[in-house]
Amino acid sequence: MDWKIFCTTFWMIFITEMGDKTQLANLSLVSKSKMPWTVLFASISGYALATLVAITVGSVLYKFIPQNYIEIGAGCLFIIMGILMLTGIL
Predict the structure, then answer these.
(1) Whole-model pTM?
(2) In sequence order, what are the residues at sequence separation of 6 or more whose Cβ sits closer than 8 angstroms to the Cβ of residue 37?
(3) Is the separation of the CB atoms in 17 and 23 below 8 Å?
(4) Which pLDDT belongs to residue 52?
(5) Residues 6 or more apart from 21 whose CB is under 8 A from it?
(6) What is the pLDDT, as a whole number, of residue 79?
(7) Is the pLDDT of residue 39 over 90?
């Protein structure tokens, strides 16, 4: 295992996920259901599945598309999502 990649990935995910909509949704679900362990395990499972899909797609894409194009595409998607959130569409 490459610990540098592990630590970089861990901290990048941890820091970028702080205060995002997923945390707010979890907070809401726990306060509504009063079942923190169920929400925890369901949230971890959902995030793990989403991550698995992203890694699977990413491992295929990098074989056919140069990394800088993938980064530009991801940046454009972030901008589009931000605009949609600001306009209230999302």
Answers:
(1) 0.66
(2) none
(3) yes
(4) 95
(5) none
(6) 94
(7) yes
Joined together, the tokens standing for residue 83 give: 């605009």
* Dist CA 11 CA 19 (whole Å): 14
Closest-CA residue to 21 (of 2, 56, 47, 1):
47
Q: At what angle do helices 36-64 and 21-33 cross, to 10 degrees?
A: 150
Q: Identify residue 82 by its one-letter amino acid code.
A: G
Whether 30 and 36 have beta carbons less than 8 Å apart is answered as yes
**The dihedral sign for the CA sequence 48, 13, 4, 71:** positive
Label residue 62 by pLDDT band (50, 70, 90).
Answer: confident
